[in-house]
Amino acid sequence: MPSYLLETYVPRARTDELAEAAARARDTALRLEADGRRIRFVRSTFVPSDEIGVLVFEAESADTVGEVARRAAITYERIVEAIE
Questions:
Q1: From CA 61, how far away is CA 71, in angstroms rounded?
Q2: Distances in Å between the alpha carbon of 49 and those of 1, 8, 11, 12, 82?
Q3: Cα–Cα distance between 12 and 25 in angstroms, integer?
Q4: Model-wide pTM > 0.85
Q5: Which domain CATH number covers 63?
Q6: In this model, does residue 81 exceed pLDDT 90?
Q7: Could you tell me which of 32, 33, 22 has the C-alpha nearest to residue 73?
Q8: Distance of CA 74 to the CA centre of its chain
Q9: What is the maximal distance between C-alpha atoms in the chain?
Q10: What is the span of the domain harbouring residue 57?
Q11: How many structural domains comprise the chain?
């Protein structure tokens, strides 16, 4: 499955919000997977110098990652495919 990065703005003073968003993303991805969608939440990363949070997924498409974000109420800047 392809990998996707979801980028979200996270102020340094509120880094706990990234952990909360990651938990919601994980739970939502598991529900979609149980419904037969191909998606897996992999990890989250915080880049303090840029105040960027990155949620990493393996998924069938960027649209599926976007669906996770919508259902989990995660505001994001963009979703891009990544090659590891």
A1: 16
A2: 30, 14, 10, 9, 21
A3: 20
A4: yes
A5: 3.30.70.3090
A6: yes
A7: 22
A8: 8
A9: 38
A10: 3-82
A11: 1
Q: Using alpha carbons, select from 79, 5, 66, 83 the residue that is nearest to residue 32.
A: 66
Residues counted in the chain:
84
For 20, the token pair is: 């909360």
Q: What is the pLDDT of residues 26-69, one digit of tens each?
A: 999 999 999 999 999 999 999 999 999 999 999 999 999 999 99
Phi, psi (rounded to 5 degrees) for 82: -125, 150
- What sign has the CA pseudo-torsion 56, 7, 39, 1? negative
Question: Which of 10, 18, 28 lies closest to 64 in space, CA to CA?
Answer: 28
Between vectors from CA 28 to CA 74 and to CA 13, what angle results, nearest 5°?
A: 35
Residues 52, 67, 34, 58, CA torsion sign: negative
Q: H-helix or E-strand containing 29? A: helix 16-34
The CA distance from 55 to 34, in Å, is: 20
**Residue 9 is encoded by which pair of tokens?**
């703005």
